[in-house]
Amino acid sequence: MISIAGIELDVIERGRGTPILYLHGGAGIGPDAAFIDALARERRVIAPSHPGFGKSSLPDWLDNVDDIAHVYLELMDRLKLTRIDLVGFSIGGWIAAEMATKVPERIERLVLIGPVGVKTGTPDKLDIPDVFAMPREKLDQLRFHDPARYAPELATMPDDELHIVARNSETLALLTWEPYMHNPKLKHRLHRVNVPTLLLRGASDGIVSADYLARYAALIPGARIETIAQAGHLPQHEQPAATAATVLQFLQAEKEAATSGARR
Q: Which of 96, 106, 148, 185 is most enclosed, with most CB atoms within 10 A?
């Protein structure tokens, strides 16, 4: 546990080497364990549970994603992370994007996996399906390429884990309900992200569409898009090895390109 601004943050740290700050999605850290382990074989990975998720506390004053972005900037200060590679998934991608617009000089490279956070379509239609208004079975069909294999079995889950699932869902609603799944100001700030950026999406993602991701990427100068086969909205869960390999390859290639450029 690390105390930041009166918030007790539950932080996982694994591996050695150049640090990656990994920011999880709405289901919390749990589904990302194998992905984090894969990254940690080559890099030092720092993965906090967002305030109100997992075992991290939630203060009364925190009620939006921008607040969490500021908390993580302070966490970087506390851990003496001058510059980092930043990887975020879904709402974690939104938080990462907010951070990158505030302090692009402290971000080496940015990876957004199935990110939300911007409104790119018409005002009369949601860009992201209303995940709070559908039954779990329908949501799992949108989230997973293979729901029968990867969707959590809530009926057999221990009470302490069920409590975390419910708490994560409650906090997700608090942060994303209104305006739904976006910050109206973020798309006007993303031009400040002047670092190598990769946007990733599972090929079967029913939450973040290919069109939405393309419009998101167009807001970030020079951003690239890649797709993970046989994966839905959680490619880091359904295909952890392939997703980690894609992320690490991007980070390493961009690092080598930057080093080569500096030598010239």
A: 96
Ordered structural domains, the chain, with CATH: 2-263 (3.40.50.1820)
- The radius of gyration of the chain from alpha carbons, rounded to an integer in Å, stands at 17
Per DSSP, 117 falls in state B
Give the single-character DSSP code of 105.
Answer: G
Evaluated on CA atoms 74, 72, 110, 188, the torsion sign reads negative
Which among 72, 78, 87 is positioned nearest to 18, based on CA atoms? 87
Q: Rounded to an integer, what distance in angstroms lies between the CA atom of residue 249 and that of residue 149? A: 28
C-alpha of 86 from chain center = 9
Contact 25, 202 (CB under 8 A): no
Cα 249 to Cα 116, 189, 195, 216, 232: the distances in Å are: 23, 27, 16, 22, 21
State pTM to two decimals.
0.94
Position of tokens 């930043």? 86
Q: Under DSSP, is residue 122 helix (H, G, I), strand (E, B) or coil? A: coil
DSSP string, 173-237: HHHHTTTTTB-TTGGGTGGG--S-EEEEEETT-SSS-HHHHHHHHHTSTT-EEEEETT--S-HHH
pLDDT tens track for 38-88: 999 999 999 999 999 999 999 999 999 999 999 999 999 999 999 999 999
| Beta strand extents in the chain (DSSP E only) | 2-4, 7-9, 11-14, 19-23, 44-48, 84-89, 107-113, 197-202, 224-228
